[in-house]
Amino acid sequence: MAPDDARKPYAVVGQGSIFDGIAYWVTLAGVYLMVGGLMFYSGKEKLFDDDGKAPAGIKEQFQGTFLDTFPGTDAAWVILGILEFGVFVLLFASLVRLEILPHRDKSLLQVALSVAMLTFAVLAFGQTVTQQFAGVASLYTYFGATVVILILVSLLPPNRPDRWLGGLGRDGA
Fold first, then answer.
1. How far apart are CA 58 and CA 46, in angstroms?
2. ∠ CA(53), CA(55), CA(59), 5° rounding?
3. Fewest C-beta in 10 Å: which of 87, 94, 108, 131?
4. Residue 57 DSSP SS3
């Protein structure tokens, strides 16, 4: 096999070990399922199930704050829904572009994770406005975990060798 044939752009495992391949696929499956599932159902609820109307408990929580008047609780609810569902749409587009394959650039996936970070920051801001500090701490954890996921994705192939678990191996090849 010629050296160029060993690294096909649509290779499923690449030149890494079977363990590299398994870890790669399981890692990306986890990222897409965790982030995609969370954002799909959160955005769907706000935009479609609630028809863009914030629930009574949310309206009560923000009553008397500046968010109650600008942009308004319902508008803020829709903005959050758009951000959340937008992350899901970006993840879906990433799958359509086959970014899940080892030798494909993962730019849409990285943008989706960045928008997820913005979404968690917006949610935390809203919780801070109403002094829901336990919620802020939880959202800070979501934000930080998303940062770690973004870094992890940047360390996967094609940005690193196919043997990404153990580097280049003992023989340096």
1. 12
2. 95
3. 131
4. helix
Contact by Cβ (8 Å): 157, 102:
yes
Residue matched to tokens 């309206």: 59
The two tokens of residue 139 are: 């959202």
What is the pTM for the complete model shown? 0.87
pLDDT one-digit tens code per residue, 38-90: 999 999 999 999 999 999 999 999 999 988 888 999 999 999 999 999 999 99
Segments making up each domain of the chain, as ranges? 16-154
Is residue 169 within 8 Å of 163, Cβ to Cβ? Answer: yes
